[in-house]
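Fold this sequence, please.
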Amino acid sequence: MNEDNNDIGYMIKLLNDTLEKKANDDLRVFDLTFSQLRTLRFIAEQENRETTQKALEDFLGVSHPTINGILKRMEEKGKITTEISVNKRMTKTVRITEKGIRELEIANEGHNVQENILRNSLDVGERETLMNLLNKIYKGITENENNQKKESKAKSVKSEKSMKEKIRNALYGAAVADALGVPVEFFWRDDLKKNPVVDMRGFGSYDQPKGTWSDDTSMTLCLAESIARLGEIDYKDIMENFLLWYNEDDFLPGDELFDIGYTCESAIQNYMKGKPPLLCGLTDEDNNGNGSLMRISPLPFFLSAKFCIENANTMSDEVFSVIHGVSSLTHAHPISLIGCDIYCALMIEIITNGRLKKESLLKNAVDSVKAFVEKHDEYANALSKYKRLKKADFAKTDENDINTSGYIVDTLEAALWCFLTTESYRECVLKAVNLGRDTDTVACVAGSIAGLYYESVPDEWVNTLRNRKLIDEIAESFSAKCESCRG
């Protein structure tokens, strides 16, 4: 007998691995996952073999976008059907199909066979003894684990709170600023000087209620939710979330999508036509809008945690590659990639270096990207488009020379100029909005930076946001995932 077989933990793990492998092999025949199997079992146990999407969310303990993705894939395989109530649009009824019932019955038979194999290898007394011992072991492990968690929490509560607060302030900083800009998008600067935005407004450009955020925040949440659920960067899954937003009205402040940029929409349609995720983004120089910059704020948090980045100067080629991949889902031209590099490097600087002078943070970020480009000269021309950011006196640029078009270079410059020339989150985002034109995105980018840097977003604005519950849920799960990566 192998020495390892005297190790209790080894034997339990060996048993678990064996059972899990057998279960996965059995489920693979039916093209099922554990989550899908649990979903089928739950529906089958309900009256009339039907339930609601909300009930499934509660049962599985997952978010709305996650269960939506599970149901979408199961419906495509013919295991369930879904129907949206005519009277209550947001209520989705889920029913198991005959195919789903048949596959569930066979899968359950397989489970029963495994249980019988386990039972038949022991007599009644042995089974009772084993169950008592396993329960005792489980109780001991969980009690010890809880004690360790309490000790760990006492030692690291400050850092945990810090990361959670940083993520919350960046995400809410972006969403609040986005919502401030939505009602006046496309307004001219001169008109806003006469009637400046000083607080949350409603209606305006899109006739939306006060606190409505746009595609900027929706796509940001798509990225954060995917990372939170999977604990990794999965480009296909991110595109699937974009698709849920685009086709299924998920990740929205209200009932309907009301704003989407040409390049983002074209990339999503490319994905719908079967293109691989990293080939969906548009590559022409004319397609360098701000659509990847506006949604990338969660990424620096995950990268800094996963790769243990000490500061922007320690960002590896692999880190830059991930940034490029996330941008390339919609915007794949080098100018867009470098713009996202500079933004992410700055955010990583703030995450890791705290309250350095703003000018020093920006210089460190630009220097990091410059060092990367020196090794990859195919990006040299793209970096040259951001030459104003290399100047030590960029903050002294006259307002008349700050442009707020949808061009990524203009957006990044405008957002950074607002950040450098103000002293609070409130002042920064209002300045960004009142520059006019692409108000929501310039403010959204500036707001994510200022929210992280100042560690504060006004509660009265946060409380005005529509569908705040969704933002809260995703921010919570995303920060927990980043903490676990860092730990």
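Residues 124-181 form the longest helix (58 residues). Residues 86-90, 152-160 have pLDDT under 50 and may be disordered.
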